[in-house]
Amino acid sequence: MPVVLHQFTVAVGGVMNPGYLEALELARQCATHAHTQALPGAGIAHGSCWAALATVPNPGAGFPLGNAVAGGAALPYGVVFGNSRFSIVGAFAVVPGAPAVGFSGHAERNALVVAGGNGLVPYGLVAPNAGDWVMYVQLHPCVHCLPWLQGVGGGGLLNPFAGLIAGAQNLHVWYRWAHNPLGCAAKDTWNGLPLATKLAQINTW
Ligand SMILES: [Zn+2]
């Protein structure tokens, strides 16, 4: 089954699309997790792109259920992050599940590679959407990542879940900004906002 792209926009919303609520939570998870590194001059993440994948948890291996950003209630899935600059960080800090050849410069790829490298599998939504997986990435997947997500090119390591996506699973990729100069600039500006502002904005997506 395919990779299905959805854009968060204030005008369109997306409530009827699979994974909308989960993707909103993944966006909140990214905003919170990345915030201290996302401010200008504070770290690697201001100009980089973040992604998060909902996974089946494996607490025994150190991958517990996530907790909702608002209120802290346990989520039914774990959260695995990816960043477009893992390819730089990987040389200096150990990321569990990092591939031996290193990370790519693409946030959504790195989230999927980390999940696969730790033996995790994406979380299937509840029936009737059990065949649907969900991830969030700030920018629309680039022209290389679109085929890569489907296992049909794009260079680098294979998507560890491409075979399943070619089978019965759908991967719903929710993104916020177009992958062009305007979209990248909007993403960078957004990364520099106060965390409370980011979370309030996500609630309007
Ligand atoms: Zn890409």
TrEMBL record:
Cited InterPro entries: Cytidine_deaminase-like
Molecular function per GO: catalytic activity
Protein name per UniProt: Uncharacterized protein
Organism the protein comes from: Pseudomonas thivervalensis
Phylogenetic lineage: Bacteria, Pseudomonadati, Pseudomonadota, Gammaproteobacteria, Pseudomonadales
